[in-house]
Amino acid sequence: QVQLVESGGGLVQPGGSLRLSCAASGSIFRITAMGWYRQAPGKQRELVAVITSGGSTNYADSVKGRFTISRDNAKNTVYLQMNSLKPEDTAVYYCNARIVGVTSPIEYVYWGQGTQVTVSS
Length: 121
Hints:
By secondary structure, the protein is mainly beta.
C-alpha cells in the first residue's frame, strides 16, 4: 500500500555530483522521517543521512560537508544531494521512510528498491 520509488543513481567521476530522489506514495497519513542508507559490496548497510518531518537532520561522519539531505513534505519526497563524490561512496543507495498509514496508527518502516551509485574514473 506504500511504495518508495528512487531515482538519480548512476556513474560519476571522482569529485562529481549526483542527486538522488525518493518519492513515497500510497495510503499515507504521516511520514515521521525519511532517509538514505547505502550498502557497498561485502559490507553492512549503513546510515547515510536522515531528516525528520520537522527538518532535523543527521549525517554519517563520512559524508558530512559533502552530502545534503532535504525534503518536500507536500510531495512526500526526500532528496540527497551528493557532492565531491569519492570512490568509497560507491554503493547501492536505499531510501527509507517511517510512515503511519491511513488505516492504522502504527508506524512502519519502508524501503525503496535501491539505486546504484558508482564513483569511478
